[in-house]
């Protein structure tokens, strides 16, 4: 008999709300779809290219219920069967026939046009994992398959945030570390910073940490990577913030394959609600994979022509590679350097076709002091305007609008005036 898995919910959300959903990636599973319409087959094919199904092996066939029953008379069933049915009659009898040839543990998702609660209850009673009303889009397929492997009681964990500079020297690492600090301190969300610049990473310096082990121990020993192993490599910065530090040494060459960090990211997802990747400014197979595979992306740019070109290229490339995700966001940094000609934020926004989330001013005194002391901006001046900008970015990237610093009290306007003075 087909095993019972998580019951699906009817999908009547708007497309934007769907894009904003956090959907955990599916594990390495086999999925076979039996479609009756070319529209559904196209949606499933598009879902195959989504990053969250990157590990799933998905095969598409036409013929619907009859084709599925015939196929599994002589072949083992996959982990998941996607089954489209256009007929209003024979769904239940067809599922009974399919159950007779299904292996134990196979999960079935039915795609149909009948919006009827009685039918839905009968499907659940027969062990169907999810029932999706057609017409369906790629994200409907992604959500349905991924949710099969997410336990209902599990809290949302494993959101990966990638921060990358549009050009070298724009301060992307500094912003990544300060945003992670805001996520941990102000949003009280457990987070880890993974410094991916193994040769020249600065996370250890910025957090005033010098751990004997770090991310290099994991990336060069992929067979040892598990939760316990990574826990030993983490350096604790605060109650809610941990660091997976880079060695920042040149005693070896750091050449990696495309999937070198996959095991690390997958393991971190299972234990940490938020993972902030400090991605070095380079374009290689593994950096592209890290960016495309992230849940959210922040591009850091300075207001000049080279940064504008690079931001535009990265924005367009990543948006095309992640059609079912939120578009990357970007911020401008080092704005207002004396005597330096700059491209205004409005011109930047016109070229990118998106506004920067914030424009961080050039303030060498406080940023220099923080860097030299191994502190965050909020540690030096909690009420500094850039600290508020980092919190704004943190809220946007995590989807959490509330923080421990509540501004809803009746004293908030007065305190704001005093801070400005």
Automatic annotation (TrEMBL):
Task: Provide the coiled-coil residue spans.
Answer: none
Keywords recorded for this protein, A-Z? ATP-binding, Nucleotide-binding
Question: Where does the AAA domain start and stop, copy by copy?
Answer: 159-321
User: One Pfam annotation, family name?
Assistant: AAA_31
Q: What is this protein called?
A: AAA family ATPase
Q: Which organism is it from?
A: Afipia carboxydohydrogena
Starting at the broadest rank, the lineage of the source organism is: Bacteria, Pseudomonadati, Pseudomonadota, Alphaproteobacteria, Hyphomicrobiales
């Amino acid at each position: 008999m087909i095993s019972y898995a998580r019951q699906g919910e009817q999908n009547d959300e708007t497309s934007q709300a769907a894009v904003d959903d956090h959907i955990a990636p599916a594990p390495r599973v086999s999925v076979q779809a039996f479609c009756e319409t070319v529209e559904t087959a196209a949606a499933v094919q598009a879902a195959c290219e989504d990053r969250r199904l990157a590990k799933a092996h998905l095969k598409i066939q036409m013929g619907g219920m009859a084709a599925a029953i015939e196929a599994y008379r002589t072949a083992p069933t996959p982990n998941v069967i996607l089954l489209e049915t256009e007929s209003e009659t024979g769904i239940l009898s067809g599922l009974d026939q399919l159950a007779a040839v299904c292996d134990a543990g196979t999960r079935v998702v039915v795609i149909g046009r009948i919006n009827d609660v009685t039918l839905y209850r009968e499907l659940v009673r027969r062990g169907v994992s999810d029932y999706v009303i057609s017409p369906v889009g790629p994200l409907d397929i992604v959500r349905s398959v991924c949710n099969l492997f997410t336990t209902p009681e599990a809290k949302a964990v494993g959101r990966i945030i990638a921060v990358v500079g549009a050009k070298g020297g724009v301060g992307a690492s500094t912003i990544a570390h300060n945003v992670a600090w805001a996520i941990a301190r102000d949003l009280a969300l457990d987070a880890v910073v993974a410094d991916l610049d193994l040769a020249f990473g600065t996370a250890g310096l910025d957090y005033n940490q010098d751990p004997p082990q770090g991310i290099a121990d994991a990336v060069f020993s992929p067979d040892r990577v598990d939760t316990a192993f990574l826990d030993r490599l983490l350096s604790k910065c605060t109650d809610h913030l941990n660091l997976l530090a880079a060695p920042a040494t040149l005693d070896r060459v750091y050449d990696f394959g495309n999937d070198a960090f996959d095991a690390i990211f997958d393991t971190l997802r299972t234990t940490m609600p938020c993972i902030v990747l400090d991605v070095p400014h380079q374009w290689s197979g593994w950096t592209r994979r890290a960016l495309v595979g992230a849940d959210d992306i922040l591009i850091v740019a300075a207001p000049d022509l080279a940064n504008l070109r690079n931001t535009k290229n990265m924005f367009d490339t990543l948006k095309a590679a992640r059609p079912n995700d939120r578009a990357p966001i970007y911020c401008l940094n080092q704005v207002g350097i004396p005597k330096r000609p700059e491209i205004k934020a409005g011109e930047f926004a016109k070229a990118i076709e998106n506004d920067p989330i914030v424009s961080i001013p050039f303030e060498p005194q406080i940023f220099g002091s923080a860097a030299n002391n191994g502190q965050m901006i909020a540690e030096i001046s909690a009420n500094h305007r850039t600290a508020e900008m980092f919190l704004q970015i943190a809220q946007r990237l995590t989807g959490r609008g509330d923080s421990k610093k509540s501004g809803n009290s009746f004293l908030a306007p007065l305190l704001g005036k005093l801070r400005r003075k």
